[in-house]
Amino acid sequence: MAKMAHLWGLPTLEPSRQSVGACLSLGVKPKGRRGFPEQKDRFHVVMAKTQERGQGKGKIDFRPHDPRFAAFNDADIETRRVFYAMLCYHREQECWHPSYGMYRFPKGSNFANPRTKCFACIGNGTTAERWLDGGAAAIPCPGEGCPFRQGDSAPCKPRARFWFMPRWLPSQGKEFARWMKDGSITNLLERPIMRLATQSREARDTFGGMLEEVREQAKPLGGVRSWYGMPFVMTLGPASNPEKKTKWYETTFTLGGDWFEWLKWQAAEFGQLAAAKPLVALGSASAAELDGEAVGAEHAAIVPYVAPIGPAVKPAVTVEPAPEGEARPEGSSPEAERRSPPTSPASPSGPLSTSDKIEAWMEENGFKGRKSDVTRALSGADLVDKGKRWYDCAEEWSSVKPVLDTLAEKGKS
Fold it and tell me: First vs last Cα of the chain: how many Å apart?
């Protein structure tokens, strides 16, 4: 007897085998208990791999909370009803997989249900795989026109899977991310590829409509060249059916507030790549074309945010004599300057923030275990607001350092 695939059978229905570091869920089964999931009014970040509980017919699969994201899973409900994310694949079919699925044929139909735990029929709107005569058979999929999709309690349900990366923002809480002094954001939680599986028609429609809106708006800029990095927001909101007197929560997708900036950035980047000169075969390249600094300059022109590639061997540093009547800086000598490497340009992340400098000062002066003393000293000098900690200090380092030095002197006495 032919055995039907547990979830996806035909090659046209097979999702890309993306690696997943965690899953986003609309409910959990605490300690793997039987029954319906609980707490379906908020998002949960759960383990990517299912765990088993029980044996034999009593065995059940469940996904516990991922301990790496305890800050999110322990946050208040309103925070967990909004999830900021970005697409992380080049092609649309790698970002999501809409489909239709039916576990069992309804009573009265002329079809026999499979004996194994699998779908009786699953399709993608074009092609379907249905359990027929004891095996799987390929048939056309009419999508919304399928007779099993009709009625309020249609056995064939719309479903979808989405792949994305989280975007942790400081507005969610200081345990998620924080602003740096140069305007960048430092993430305090991991950002693995995540997956969300849903049977919500609203989720499918809003995600597809979101992508269609981006395609339309991208036409003047040459179209969408890649879906990498497109920001969006998942929102969990209440829904109801007055006739059936039922209530539930469903997911909707909307574009992130900076999506148009992403679109303009993409058009500029791909435009630069298209205008770049083709690679030169090594055998026909001249010495000038292979020069390290020339290659680095071209590379920086194409990808401005990457530091230029320098020559393989840095030239020796030429030490100019000090002007007549002007002394060298204390502790320096021509020999020391000759050994010192040239100063590198600032890193893309910008200068150190005040909190980073405070942390370095604590490490140097032995205050790593006395952070509360540092907070009290800064608070007493009105450099930190009441109720804040040392890492919330945003004052100039020139104002902070004398306070810390005074604290160090008191510690020595």
Answer: 86
Q: Are residues 63 and 104 in the same domain?
A: yes
pLDDT in tens, 194-229: 999 888 888 888 999 999 999 999 888 888 888 989
pTM as predicted: 0.60
Report the length, in residues, of the chain: 413
Same domain flag for 224 and 173: no
Cα–Cα distance for residue pair 383/360, rounded to 1 Å: 18
Within this chain, do residues 180 and 206 fall inside the same structural domain, yes or no?
no
Give 84 or 144, the one with higher predicted confidence: 84
pLDDT in tens, 120-162: 888 888 888 888 777 778 889 988 888 888 877 788 888 889 9
Residues 6 or more apart whose CB falls under 8 angstroms from that of 98 comprise: 124, 125, 158, 159, 160, 204, 208
Instruction: Supply the DSSP string of 250-314, one letter for each residue.
Output: EEEEEE-TTHHHHHHHHHHHHHHHHHSPPPPPGGG--TTTT-HHHHHHHHHHHSTTSPPP--SSP
Q: What is the pLDDT of residues 348-388, one digit of tens each?
A: 334 577 887 888 888 888 887 788 888 888 888 888 877 77
Q: CA 319: distance to chain centroid?
A: 48
DSSP-derived secondary structure for 169-184: -GGG-TTTEEE-TTS-
Same domain, 41 and 172: yes
- By residue range, what is the domain housing residue 374? 354-412
Q: Is residue 324 part of a domain?
A: no
